[in-house]
Specification:
The chain has helices spanning about 25-35, 60-70, 85-95, 115-130, 135-140, 150-155, 155-165, 170-180, 185-190, 210-220, 235-240, 240-255; strands at about 10-15, 40, 75-80, 100-105, 195-200, 225-230. With about 270 residues, the protein is α/β, with parallel strands linked by helices. β3 (about 75-80), α3 and β4 (about 100-105) form a beta-alpha-beta unit.
């Protein structure tokens, strides 16, 4: 039966760069078993989603998410985004603030990239599309997506992540990196967001620091910071039960909201790129 605007919000799971919707299999299964409506989406160019011809911009991904919700007849969503998926979730929040009932951000910064980081992303986009450099770039960058404990004790997780990275469309990898590099600072946006939220950080994340995760949690007026021991940048794969537990807690908070720490002015939903 299609969901209606009055139904429970749909939990939307947004995957990390080089992966696809199946990274959320454990969480999707558990949340469905708990009675929550859930969709795990392939972002454009990954999994079964076509890349299309739009220029690189996270607002394009946000609009894709809105259309997916519309097809379900669901007006409001609980957005759960890992890394690239977190940046897509923030773009959706900026574009459609009235459609967000809750927010879970994993391994994503509130701030825009520094010029140096943005340049690194643009360089990655160039190299990954070059057959001569692609394999070396992926072999060097992909192990950083998981923590040291995972690399040592859960090599099957790293093997899975490497396989997904090798199988990903190079054009999609480049498009996504350029879109992420072009994103705007979301700190003010998060400060204005008065919905239950959780920030989930891997204690061994080598790409987003503990201080950056804390800054995201501090910006959200109604948030909890959950640090997952023994996990790196991809906690949903490295520590699936811990992430599932944090998401179930968030959904419980949405059913029984906590007081908001502060009220601030909401940003407009105008496109950023």
């Amino acid at each position: 039966m299609p969901l209606t605007a009055a139904s429970e919000p749909t939990v939307v799971l947004l995957h990390a760069l080089s992966l696809h919707a199946t990274m959320w299999q454990a969480q999707e299964r558990a949340l469905r078993a708990a009675g929550h409506p859930v969709i795990a989406l392939d972002q454009r160019g990954f999994g079964t989603a076509p890349l299309g011809t739009a220029p690189p911009c996270l607002d394009v991904v946000a609009d894709d998410v809105a259309r997916a919700l519309d097809r379900l007849g669901s007006h409001r969503a609980v957005l759960v985004g890992s890394s690239m998926g977190g940046y897509a979730a923030m773009a959706f929040l900026r574009r459609f603030p009235d459609r967000v009932a809750g927010l879970a951000l994993l391994s994503a910064r509130a701030t825009a990239d520094s010029p140096g980081t943005a340049a690194e992303r643009m360089r990655f986009a160039e190299l990954v599309q070059d057959e001569r450099s692609r394999q070396a770039v992926l072999e060097r960058a992909t192990p950083l997506l998981v923590g040291a404990t995972t690399r040592q004790h859960r090599p099957h997780v790293l093997s899975r992540v490497l396989a997904d990275a090798r199988a990903a469309d190079p054009a999609a990898l480049a498009w996504a990196q350029r879109a992420i590099a072009a994103r705007t600072d979301s700190t003010v946006l998060l400060r204005a967001t008065r919905v239950p939220a959780v920030v989930i950080a891997g204690a061994e994340d080598e790409l987003v620091t503990a201080q950056e995760a804390q800054a995201v949690a501090d910006a959200l007026p109604q948030s909890t910071l959950v640090t997952v021991p023994g996990a790196g940048h991809l906690a949903p794969l490295e520590a699936p039960e811990a992430v599932t537990g944090a998401l179930l807690d968030l959904l419980g908070d949405i059913a029984a909201p906590r007081p908001v720490r502060a009220a601030r002015r909401t940003e407009t939903g105008a496109p950023s790129c």
